[in-house]
Amino acid sequence: MGLGQPKGNRFCPQAKGVNWLGNGFQAVFFGIGRTARPHRGADIDHHFAPFGVLVFHGFENGQMGLASRVGGFMEEERSPLRLHNIEFVDIHCHILPGLDDGPSHWQESLRMAQIAVAEGVTTVVATPHQLGNYPHNTVSRIRGRWEEFCSRLASEGIPLRVELGADIRLEPELPEKIANGEVLPIGDHGRYVLVELPSDSCCAVENLLKKLRRIGVTPILTHPERSVVVARNQKFLRQWVAGGGLIQITGGSLTGSFGLVVQSAAERLLGEGLVHLVASDAHGATRRRPLWRRVYERLAELGGPDWADRLCRENPARVLAGQQVLEVPPISIGFFPKLFAMFSRKAG
Ligand SMILES: [Fe+2]
Q1: Separation of 195 CA from ligand 1 center, angstroms?
Q2: For residues 148 and 337, which has the higher predicted lDDT (pLDDT)?
Q3: How distant, in Å, are the alpha carbons of 83, 101, 126, 175, 182 from that of 185?
Q4: What percent of the chain has pLDDT over 90?
Q5: Domains of the chain by range and CATH?
Q6: How many A from CA of 8 to the centre of ligand 1?
């Protein structure tokens, strides 16, 4: 099957027949195993139960969410990774300690690396926050921490390649700061930078995109699905992509870590072909971990393994190598993403 061809629910056959509602709500129809209220920012995973689990979120990033999970044991046994030996490239991961809201010490960073390796990740781009609330994160400070991390990984024998980058707050002076070497692009070639919007709100970006294009830099907008304001602003996102920008969503958004609203927004963006890359945006070893297997499974359910591979490995590897990313075709989406799209159109 070619790219963008939905493959149904082949990795979760026990949920057949209820896909018309969207996968986020399937568990309701198979009985409730138990409920949980994870702390703010927690991953929702390993909630196994014989028939299904219904997980209610508290307020997560200002939104009330609801997520569900079906038949954990069955899904683990049927993991497509055993058939499809994918090697993930994570271009957005807060893995360096003591620089931002990521890990606070070396042990946690090393544990994150072990988790990433166990999840099938071969390469991680270390992307601490820069600019905004993190003016102290200079290039030399980040580089020093990165060099020490690489040597600790080698002495611990952890087979993870770590490249250098940053999660940069978008500001009008960004092109000048890139040109002056004040912020870190992804990898050595300097062709891509990872950017987040100030205060999760939209701003005028036309001139900024033009300036970045002029200096040969492509910005990658991180996790627009996690801000309802940004995710609903079709005009802004389309303008961003038309202006040469790329879009990266967070893997956990697709598996319910941020609630049903964010999950629906992420699937709606995928449905419209506005997403180019998936990354973990991991922040720790016990919360917001660098988890990939379930993310890949969910993507494979939505659009097939080749399509998932493009989002999780091929395009991230191209970004790291400074090559042009490949097109990611739109897919058909479920009930909740459609509902989200309908409200977005009304809002727009
Ligand atoms: Fe980040």
Answers
A1: 9
A2: 148
A3: 34, 20, 11, 11, 10
A4: 64
A5: 18-75 (no CATH), 85-347 (3.20.20.140)
A6: 31
